[in-house]
Amino acid sequence: MSWIARVLIGVVVVLLLVIGALAWLFRSQAEEIPDELPTLDDAKVAPADITLAGGDIPDLKVADLKGKRAYFVLEDRESMQAGESKDLNRALARWEMGDDVVGYAIGDAKGFGVFRSKIDEFMGMMRPEMRLPLYIDYDGVFYDTFKLPRGHTGLVVLGPESDVLHRHSGPAEADDLETIRGILGAREPEPPPAPDFAVGDYTKASCEGRVCLFAFLDEAVERADVPGIEGGFDGGREESFKRLAKPSVRLVGVLAGADDKIDEDKHTAVIVGDLKGFEFRRVATLDAAPEARAAFGVGDGAALVVIDEKSRLAFKAEGKVAFWQLGLVADLLGVDLGERDHNEP
After folding, report:
1. Are 60 and 52 in contact (CB under 8 A)?
2. Which of 12, 102, 278, 298 is surrounded by the fewest CB atoms within 10 Å?
3. Which domains does the chain have, with CATH numbers?
4. What is the b/e burial string over 152-161, where b = at least 16 CB atoms within 10 angstroms of the residue's CB?
5. What residues have CB less than 8 Å from 234, skipping those under 6 apart?
6. pTM listed for this prediction
7. CB 109, CB 26: distance < 8 Å
């Protein structure tokens, strides 16, 4: 057998081994959620002893959280793919909580240390888009310590002495959310009344009984600039992220993606600014609305304003609207905006 043949056989063997290893790593590890979670009497690690490296953010030391109520939203690859945490994350983002409550997002990557550099690189891009500080748990300490089944979203709430106040696994139903809200001492927000406004022909009176969304741009946006839409920017992940970091590009991309989902009997959506190459079916456009900007107090920059069906100023954000905030807007509209979070923890 020639040396070339031996080399080729060796390469094939290595490739098969790599493929087999990857298949093993990415196999389903989802465990069944028991009727009752196991007790923590024999936990090998005390909650107060848990530390996770933060990389480009401060390390997470549970012992340093003494005196506060702390909640941790746990996710792994399969729970994120299933979207189990959507309702929980949106509720946690929506609720108003006391200064003594802190929250963290934990991404379980046990067994994926070989991809650490790529995971860290991606998380570095996503952290600014998330509401909660995000930590990657390469040793699986959180799932193991709190005995939560893998493959499902987990929630752990610790008291001021690092005592376990609550654990939950899987999607959070309405009753679960109410229990969690009570434990955290959280409350539903009460938005203020919307000011009197006019965005073209759309006014406070015309928005009564419907949800009105107004996106104000701070620069001209061309279709070719917007990633993720037909006829839009078609480039690599890094360059797409850079473009989506532009507040106006992001707003236009979100509404372009939601154009077919807008219910004209329930919603009004208007983009105010300079657009090139767009034709919308249900989203209205307007060149400028300086009086409306003044009424909403949003200045000359990019901004997103949502008036709910009770004529309340339910959402207002200036500058870049983070991915986690899009979940709040989606809740108000009752449609999926295709937000890329998923976290948002």
Report:
1. yes
2. 12
3. 47-184 (3.40.30.10), 198-333 (3.40.30)
4. bbbbbbbbee
5. 227
6. 0.83
7. no
